[in-house]
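EI: anyone free to look at a 160-residue chain?
SC: sure, send it
EI:
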Amino acid sequence: MNENLIDSINKYLIGYKFRKVSHERVPSNPPCDTIWVRRTWNTNRAVALIHLPENEIYLGNFCQKAKWKLLKKLWFFPVFYPLGLQLVIYGHSVLEKSSNISSYVDKIDNQVVVLQGVFIIDTKANKYRSARTWGQHVTGKLQDAISEGIKELYAYYEDA
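SC: here you go
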């Protein structure tokens, strides 16, 4: 578990009224360290910090599977508003697996769960990269907050 990263991201998410899910409700599949949620009268939002298993080679596929598993584990009922999900994934040498990161986020709102942002942190290189989907007026500030928390520990990776 990456306590420094949890504390750093938490510091920025608190300002957006996110709260950490109790430890008992954090799933082991996908292997989450922690999850933050915010439910309001018009939004369902979650941020999940996930340690990528070393044997996982298809990162985009992993992200898409993780969003559905998290929806079920978090007891979201997206009757009126879908769950807007941000994944923060970290691991050793994961930048090598994230060459087409913009394809990981959802381009279409399926009205159930939308993967709005993916943040990939490489603990070996001490760098991260991210991708965001549409709707930045609503989610952009939240994604900026996540980036700020990550930037306290890791440098942003820009493709050559």
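EI: The radius of gyration is 14 Å.
SC: 👍
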